[in-house]
């Protein structure tokens, strides 16, 4: 029997669709159902490698983890990664198809929808429920007829739709009622209710507005979700990056700066670093901020050469060099690692017209960009010459173009573990002779508490601070699991679960103690 479906759409981008889908994946999974997330077309620079070495949007990987299932490429069949050349890299079923202009992508959409239908069909045969995430607004009138992510998908899956609105940004009532007005009669048939997100205040003062929505639309408000500013969930797209507080938990002893590159990707790499006691982590917009930090991080980039040029034109190159001369530490991840070398070559024009760019020269490495993208989940250990004891092995993933060669003054950073032991040709990264500058292609390394301990203790010793002996903080899996549980508990307690289950068409299980979910909160 094909899976039931539930689709979450929004009145606009960044109203909380991804967060609510994550919560519902956790909720239905904990209620005993086999749940899978699905987003037909995702535009994001934050991506992830599945165990099969296929690239999907980070938000669908998070939702799969919340549901307790293995991430699969079918969960995000079309991924669009914005490119500096006014187009997108189009990733189809986990593999890059190429760079497309908006006009070319329009001609590709009919083929793309066939891919979407096939992917959804495979998921629907092996799960009880598919939680579908929309994109942006379903009523952008200039795009609506060719939209691959909203109402066309809802109709394909015969999915009831809940519309989410963000009350914190203002204009909620106009956004909900305006959205309903711009839907066709058939689309309105699929729209079953509303969820108000990011509310802070007295619910009693909001109730007249909720009754107004229900009277005007004939649809119920299923719940009001409070403003969850204490749940640091990763943004779907680094373009919508949320900056962490200037000061981390506890007294600040270490300051870490991440370059706010225009094409920054996978900024989720630094979530747990930002939450370590005594650490303040912030994104840097101005060169003078580099003088205030103990560690500079050059993050991943969708367009490495363009972002390298941005650093130069904004005055960051000299600030980075000054930081290095003062003995400051520098780390590069993926594209940031490529920038730290002497040279970046692009003989095939993968990133544009510039065929060769001088790097920052902080590592004795050089990179050649290639058409083929490496996408893989990996396990790794630091190379012996680092003297870093990290157990268990690190777990991370690669999503990058290019091969980097080490010169005489650079040593490899990590050994990648494969079946039956270590493969010499799968060394990763590079470290300077004084161990102060290093780079890696591996995303997700800072989720490992042992690696964070080694990195932060090295910084502490250089500042004359005593090293911390115990591993710092949580690992990535336990940290995210606690977030999923907290998010699920909040959403469960603020939604009318009886109505939610009725809309989905599933039986609501009896909770412990005889409770059958939350009671209606808004009507």
Explain what the structure shows:
Helix content is 29%, strand content 28%. The protein has helices at residues 17-30, 58-67, 102-124, 151-157, 172-182, 185-190, 203-217, 304-313, 316-325, 335-339, 449-462, 476-494, 497-504; strands at 4-10, 35-38, 41-43, 47-49, 55-57, 78-83, 87-92, 95-100, 129-133, 161-166, 191-199, 221-226, 254-259, 264-265, 279-284, 295-298, 300-301, 329-333, 343-345, 356-358, 365-382, 394-406, 410-411, 414-418, 421-428, 430-432, 437-440. The strands form 6 sheets. Strands 15-13-16-18-27-26-23 form a 7-stranded mixed β-sheet. The radius of gyration is 24 Å and the shape is globular. The model is unreliable at 238-249, 419-424 and 512-523 (pLDDT under 50).
Count of distinct strands: 27
Helix content: 25-40%
Taking pLDDT < 50 over at least 5 consecutive residues as the criterion, the unreliable ranges are 238-249, 419-424, 512-523
* Percentage of residues in DSSP E strands: 25-35%
The number of helical elements comes to 13
Strand ordering within the main sheet = 15-13-16-18-27-26-23
Largest sheet: 7 strands, mixed
Determine the N-to-C terminus distance: 35 Å
Whole-angstrom Rg? 24 Å
Structural class: alpha/beta
State mean pLDDT (0 to 100 scale): 89
